[in-house]
Amino acid sequence: MSQIAPETTTLDELHSAHELTASDRCDSCGAQAYIRVSIGTSELLFCSHHGKKYQEKLAAVASDWHDESDRLLENQRSV
Question: What is the value of pTM for the model shown?
Fold first, then answer.
Protein backbone atom coordinates (compact mmCIF):
# COMPACT_ATOMS: atom_id res chain seq x y z
CA MET A 1 0.00 0.00 0.00
CA SER A 2 1.43 3.39 -0.89
CA GLN A 3 1.49 6.28 1.50
CA ILE A 4 0.78 9.89 0.72
CA ALA A 5 3.19 12.29 2.38
CA PRO A 6 1.80 15.38 4.07
CA GLU A 7 2.02 18.55 1.99
CA THR A 8 4.64 19.97 4.37
CA THR A 9 7.08 17.16 3.54
CA THR A 10 9.56 18.11 0.84
CA LEU A 11 10.99 15.77 -1.77
CA ASP A 12 14.45 16.14 -0.16
CA GLU A 13 13.06 15.07 3.22
CA LEU A 14 11.49 11.99 1.66
CA HIS A 15 14.76 11.01 -0.03
CA SER A 16 16.90 11.55 3.05
CA ALA A 17 14.44 9.51 5.12
CA HIS A 18 14.55 6.61 2.65
CA GLU A 19 17.84 4.78 2.76
CA LEU A 20 18.27 2.42 -0.15
CA THR A 21 17.83 -1.23 0.82
CA ALA A 22 18.52 -4.61 -0.77
CA SER A 23 15.04 -4.51 -2.30
CA ASP A 24 15.95 -1.37 -4.29
CA ARG A 25 17.31 -2.65 -7.61
CA CYS A 26 19.36 -1.05 -10.40
CA ASP A 27 17.21 -0.03 -13.38
CA SER A 28 20.01 -1.13 -15.74
CA CYS A 29 21.04 -4.56 -14.47
CA GLY A 30 18.93 -5.51 -11.44
CA ALA A 31 21.81 -5.45 -8.92
CA GLN A 32 21.34 -3.75 -5.55
CA ALA A 33 20.92 0.00 -6.01
CA TYR A 34 23.21 2.40 -4.18
CA ILE A 35 22.44 5.54 -6.20
CA ARG A 36 19.09 7.31 -6.59
CA VAL A 37 18.74 10.03 -9.22
CA SER A 38 15.75 12.37 -9.37
CA ILE A 39 14.85 13.94 -12.69
CA GLY A 40 11.75 16.09 -12.40
CA THR A 41 9.11 13.86 -10.82
CA SER A 42 10.85 10.64 -11.91
CA GLU A 43 13.39 8.58 -10.05
CA LEU A 44 16.09 6.24 -11.36
CA LEU A 45 17.98 3.69 -9.30
CA PHE A 46 21.46 2.45 -10.17
CA CYS A 47 24.07 0.11 -8.81
CA SER A 48 27.38 1.81 -8.12
CA HIS A 49 28.82 0.71 -11.48
CA HIS A 50 25.98 2.07 -13.63
CA GLY A 51 25.58 5.19 -11.50
CA LYS A 52 29.20 6.12 -12.09
CA LYS A 53 28.91 5.16 -15.77
CA TYR A 54 25.96 7.53 -16.40
CA GLN A 55 26.82 10.24 -13.87
CA GLU A 56 28.33 12.67 -16.35
CA LYS A 57 25.30 12.53 -18.67
CA LEU A 58 22.70 12.61 -15.90
CA ALA A 59 24.32 15.40 -13.88
CA ALA A 60 23.09 17.98 -16.39
CA VAL A 61 19.43 17.04 -15.91
CA ALA A 62 19.27 15.57 -12.39
CA SER A 63 17.56 17.58 -9.66
CA ASP A 64 18.98 15.31 -6.94
CA TRP A 65 21.81 12.76 -6.75
CA HIS A 66 21.71 10.50 -3.69
CA ASP A 67 24.79 8.24 -3.53
CA GLU A 68 25.19 5.54 -0.88
CA SER A 69 27.95 3.64 -2.70
CA ASP A 70 30.34 4.35 0.20
CA ARG A 71 28.41 1.60 2.03
CA LEU A 72 30.18 -0.89 -0.24
CA LEU A 73 33.52 0.12 1.29
CA GLU A 74 32.11 -0.18 4.82
CA ASN A 75 31.02 -3.74 4.05
CA GLN A 76 34.50 -4.64 2.77
CA ARG A 77 36.18 -3.28 5.92
CA SER A 78 34.00 -5.36 8.21
CA VAL A 79 34.87 -8.65 6.45
Answer: 0.72
